[in-house]
Amino acid sequence: MPGQITFHCDVDLQNANAAWSREKREWCCENLGIACEEDFHCDVALRNYERAWSLAKKKFCCKTAGVACKGLEDEIFLTTKAPQVDPGA
């Protein structure tokens, strides 16, 4: 989309805290659930996640643990890469 800021979240990911700007870390965390400064514990407050968790935590836990995905289907679909299939498998 024109005017929308996006970042290459795979570039220098192993050094994200030192090399990335705060804006890039926030964007990558919010949109892709990576390089989040917070240590998300997906089992904490799970029974009340809809009210208690930030959007970044919901996205992270949905993608990594398969929990708290309610209402995120469209967002996850738009930001998740299709799985790569190994034709030799």
Structure description:
Helix 2 packs across helix 4. About 7% of the residues have low confidence. The termini are far apart. This protein folds into two domains: 37 residues, no CATH class; 39 residues, no CATH class. It contains five helices and no strands. It is an all-alpha fold and 89 residues long.
Topology at a glance:
Elements: H1 16-19, H2 22-32, H3 49-52, H4 55-65, H5 73-79
Enumerate the spans where pLDDT stays under 50 for 5 or more consecutive residues: 77-82
| Radius of gyration, whole Å | 14 Å
The overall pLDDT average reads: 77
Report the major sheet: none
Shape: globular
The residue fraction in helices comes out at 40-55%
What count of domains describes the coordinates? 2
Alpha plus pi helix count: 5
The end-to-end distance, rounded to whole angstroms, is 37 Å
Structural class: mainly alpha
Number of β-strand runs: 0
Strand content: under 5%
- The H/E string reads HHHHH
Can you give me a brief rundown of this structure?
The chain has 89 residues and is mainly alpha-helical. It has helices at 16-19, 22-32, 49-52, 55-65, 73-79.
Short key terms for the protein model shown above:
globular, mainly alpha
